[in-house]
Amino acid sequence: MRKFLVIALFAVFLLISGAFAENKTCEVKINLKWQYNETVNPTIDIKADNESLNFNKYMENNTSLIVRFQGDIQKPFLITIKAPGYQPVTRNFVVDQSGKAVLSVNMNAKESYIIGREITKRASKFLDFKNSDNILVITTAGHVKYKNETTEDAIEGILNELGNSVSFGRGNILLLRKTALDTLDFAFITKKGKNITMAYFRNASFSPVYIGTISENMSMKEYSKLCNSLGKDIAFSIASIANAWALGVSADILREAAFHGHLCAGTICGYAMVETLLKYYPPKGGAMGEGVSYIVLGVPGGSDDDVFVYSMDATPGKRAYIGYNTTNDPNIVGFIRWDSNNKKGTLIVMKYDVKELAEEFKKIYGLNIKEDTPIELKFNSWLVKKLINNPESLVKILYAFDNLTEEQVNYLAGGTSGRTVQSAHGLDMSYILNQTNLVNATPENFMQKKGNLTYDQLKTIGLEAARLAVDIFKQCGINVEKDNLNFLVLTSAGYARLNGQDTSPMWDGIYDILGSRLSRRTLLPVHSALWSPIWFTFILKDGKYNSSILGKIGGFGKFKFNITKDDNLLFAIQIVYDPEKGLVVINDTKGPIYDIGPGWNYTNPSVSKIFKNWNSVITISNGWSYEPPFDMLMVYLFHNHICPGVSPSYLITNYIFQNFPRGKDEKYIYITTTDYCKDDGILLLLGVSPGAGTYYNLRLSDNDTQSPSINGGNMEGILIIWNEKLNIGKAVIITFKWPQFYPGTNSLKAYIDWYKGKDPKGVASPYILTKETEKYITGDELSVILKGSKYLSSGNVLKFIMELPNRQLSDLISVLPISYPTQVTRPTNVSTLISHVITGSSIFTRIIPYISGLGIPIHESISGISGPSGKVGGEIGARGAAQAAGAAGKAYEITPVSKGIGKPGIPFAGIIAVIILIALIAAGYLLRRPEK
Ligand SMILES: [Zn+2]
Ligand SMILES: [Zn+2]
Questions:
Q1: How far is Cα 630 from Cα 146, in angstroms, rounded to an integer?
Q2: Hey, what domains does the chain have and what are their CATH numbers?
Q3: Digit-coded pLDDT (tens) for 125-159
Q4: Which one, out of 161, 551, 602, 679, has a CA that is 20 to 30 A from the CA of 152?
């Protein structure tokens, strides 16, 4: 089917290689025996002498396939049959004198596909899917590994078992972000009237650990039962998302919640902040270095931060998110809108006040919001309604300044582009409020008309785009088959909104025509800001470059290499959806089909000028053609392009998983020191994020991160393995040195080989990954680290960690209660150790200079923004925050120290000492400011 059908009007035709031998027409009939009833059209490849042949293919029915091709009947042929969820089958065969052959092939499903299918069947029995109004599936599949394999096939199994009722475009299959180390879990949820019921399957088991209600109307007793079965975190995670879904929350918000881990007040208020920002300070002027419109200055631990990363595509890897504990209020955020053409910026500072909202809620319903009760779910529902009707009522704009200079952006964010100019200071409110050149910004009042298209209307846009693409390919002699695993659709739909509406139904339209979807790796949504335009690129991987191009230097994005016969031609059509004009095919005289394989610069160089999102499209489609592991493919999408910079993330996280696996009660926190593309991979693969309070971004200057032990290496970041029970952790400084490749090497292929555990070719010197140091740390030391470098006399967090003494875990368990020689009453049993501390253990030398002799009252408010002083934990607020001082897992408002009090192993005195310490550090800092 391949080469001879590509007719002359298709310019690339001339470049395609392949000799036309004197061949006969052959025909092979393949009888397929599927493990499950499948209607899928398998993808095949036929080779002779190791060269792919052209063929025509007919499906007689679901189990019988006829393939015709031209071939030399004297020779053996090699056929490969692939279908999503199934193990590929490769067979040798010969044809008889008349050129015919018959093959019987057993198609065996992959293990995770079977799990997906079988668990769905069980769930259907328990929950009576047929008689329910709607179904939702939340699963860790796609993120976790099962028996060392990625698990996207489990999603395929679920979707095939359920038919049309569940789809990515309906937003009722959600992939809960977890690490490769987590268990393969499935939550099936049905809605019937007001009842929301769930069956939960853990760790690929076919027996559910819970069947019952998860409705917000459940009793406290029922909620306790749910928590006992699943654990509190998972119970809230699933119940919060399911109840929001039942309420009709937009699918893109539900996906953000699956990314964040649950749906909470921070999620809802985060979206309210984004809507308020877009109304008064919409994107403007030239975009910044990596194509982003805003830099977010966050304070990790407030769930809103994940909303910015997700919905604004403000990822740290694109240097669009900087954040560490620069204030005590994690629910405050700064947005820098930078105009790279005019070199001027606007800074908008917003916050949301969960306490205030909770009081309002209490006034109306008489309910006190408490963690781990269904009341929090009711509170969420109330917030959701406010988000829909009046998002601005959820947030406060504290400041909006115009006139921000490049120098000021550099100070706050470390740079205005990909290049780090200096160490970032994050949301430093006292600096901001001391700048005299800033003037109040004039808000616009951009009223976006809210679209009211139905699911079917939105779906039709995707469907029409796919049909149009199929037609154009057909006009050029290429028959695009359904379910083809060599056919890829990239799109901004699902992230980009249309008149404020989620656009993921478009994915379902594409699926109907082409059988493309995420779990098949054939429909890949490219991370985009929700105000981005909607575009689709349809790409067929087919054919090789001919001898006039082979050996030349080609490439894509920042990858340059010699083109080889392993490289593929990628034929692409791009269609943009314009709300006024409808679907527009991107075209110049060389189109509308363009080669975007690594030789594009020889076949049709103008394509780079006319395709939208060119860097995303060309890098992801080429990377996809090399078949990277599914989890890394998700990283590429999240980062929205492939570059050398994102490549180490998989290696770094693998290094972490192998050398520093998480134990019971332990979690990962990652503090980045060198801020570049790889951070997006670390977020996704390590399961950390700013909104969960497990990812911090210091963005230090290059000088500060040079490795003392590896020449040319950099201290990329600090991994903390934090034991939440003991309130003690281990800090590991991770050092990486880039590999070197011989000229002409395709380094992206080399990286993908490394991911797959293979030895790549063309490596001049391999990468180095090692630990610079590994130290046990206390809760208060963690809090120092999370506050960034400026509070340290050495001016460098990395140095602070390296200078910590080498202690054993047992040392810290005994030292913890006597951490600070302050005026706090200590339990008598530790008093004998106090003198040891006072007489100068080096742990405290870096901290004490700021405390000693100040004699100031405890006061944590910075410039009056973070609210009343002495907060030690509200009842509600950002969930799941990583907390320093004495914190329990879920953290609330400021410092949830109260949660730690009375916990076994964490004596009261130590905690109070920590509170005082934090306050003193903050105050000490304030006192020192005027000297500057
Ligand atoms: Zn949250
Ligand atoms: Zn990048």
A1: 13
A2: 3-107 (2.60.40.10), 111-248 (3.30.360.10), 265-440 (3.30.1330.130), 455-625 (3.30.1330.20), 644-803 (3.30.1330)
A3: 999 999 999 999 999 999 999 999 999 999 999 99
A4: 679
